[in-house]
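Why run this: before we spend reagent on co-expression, it is cheaper to look at a predicted model of the complex and decide which construct boundaries make sense. The entries below are exactly what would go into the expression plan.
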Amino acid sequence: MREEDVPQEKSFYQGHRRACYAVGKDEHYVLAKSAGWEVERVATEQALLELEEQVEEARQAAKRGTLSPLAYHFATRQMTPKMAAQHVGLSTWRVKRHMKPKVYAQLSPELKARYSQVLDVGQEELDRIPDAPRHVFLSDNEQAGDE
Amino acid sequence: MSEFRHLHAAHCESGVTASLLRHQGLELSEPMVFGLGSGIFFFFPPLIKVMGMPLISFRSYPGNIFKLACRRLGVKFERKTFRSSTRGKAELDDLLAREIPVGIQTNMFWLSYFPSEFRSQFNGHNLIALERGGDDFLLSDPMLEETVRLDADALERARFAKGVLAPKGALYYPTEVPSEPDLVGAVKKGVNSAARRMLDPVPVIGVRGIRRMARAVRSWKSKEARKQKLMLGHIIRMQEEVGSGGAGFRFMYAAFLQEAGELLGHKPWLEASERMTEAGDCWRSNFAGTCGRIIKGRGTGDLDTVADALVECARLEEELYRFLLAYAPSKSVHSLATGTAAAAR
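The model came back. Tokens follow.
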């Protein structure tokens, strides 16, 4: 890649610029700064929309009462039940059980406190699920400027 | 101790290592550190999944660039991990109180100074802790153009996150830097070991790994279109997004080969650098560019076009590594180049 070809396209960098290496005028490599590359942005956006969809599915399931609020919070933290289990120090099997609303309703305050700590969600907010869908990872100003 | 100078780099670990060594008086470029640490790599193992996506890596195992670069230069260093977060926190506070900049391994999700689009549960992000404030830390993250502050709670979460590659509070810093390191010898070792590993007969590593990925891409035809696009996008993200300096570290390695060739006065490495640039361009334009168009539903490419591009990348790289091994600098280059290096000093 030549220095003049270093892409300066729309990205999620929010004003940050990324360092990359490119061949300069005298055939020597230089450290150039890139504002973003369309190909990368498209790949990122696609992956994030997929994650947002998982969050939304978990949110609806929690609202319907088929899954506990924990499922929603895991999704917003990009944690699988296994990863959450490693953080809380429980077996994956137990964490999966806690994703059932009935079992969750009977959770001890101590366990809830541990989840709240690990997920960085306030104890009162642990039971609260947003009423409307919203993007967690994609900032909406990026969305507005899109397409 | 001298004033710390922040370094904006392409990749976290090579940036951190170059930055820490420079602070100790050993001035090396980021590509030089990357080459000395044999950072270039390719790894595409079966079965291992990260967040439901196959593991793909364009660089060596996290921590290896720092370790190998230091070892080959004769730099002594300390690297520690912790079972208890209390002890890990205390150790970092203690080092910072003694004004020692410390490299640390972190989980990116909790680093709130990144745009939310880039925060993921990835445990291999490296940065430097500079100073402890009341409730926060002053950090030098090579991905950013300037130093940044992060609150102590977030940094603790980032350092002691669990899961694949769990950092376990890992911290590292050089303790003793030789006044006249054998840079030429270190460079030779770095190039040799990288080229050998990229030609490793193990089918999931190096150029054979790239070919395996090409076969995998062809086999995705049976998947639904949405899934195909997600998988192609995933490869692009591993190649470009995680801070590689472009084309999955290929451009950074080309920069290294150029610098090393000039240092030793060894012409074949200059040619190798040009070949590596060509391979990098193949990764970016032929491969990633085509994937991008497929994801957007434009252009004429399909999975076969993409796989062919990968095979071409593998071919360019294989020839290049064989060339590097065939035209390794002779022993006499060593004394000659150290002579000129000493004269330059």
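Confidence is low (pLDDT under 50) at residues 335-345 of chain B. Residues 267-296 of chain B form the longest helix (30 residues). Bring this page to Monday's planning discussion.
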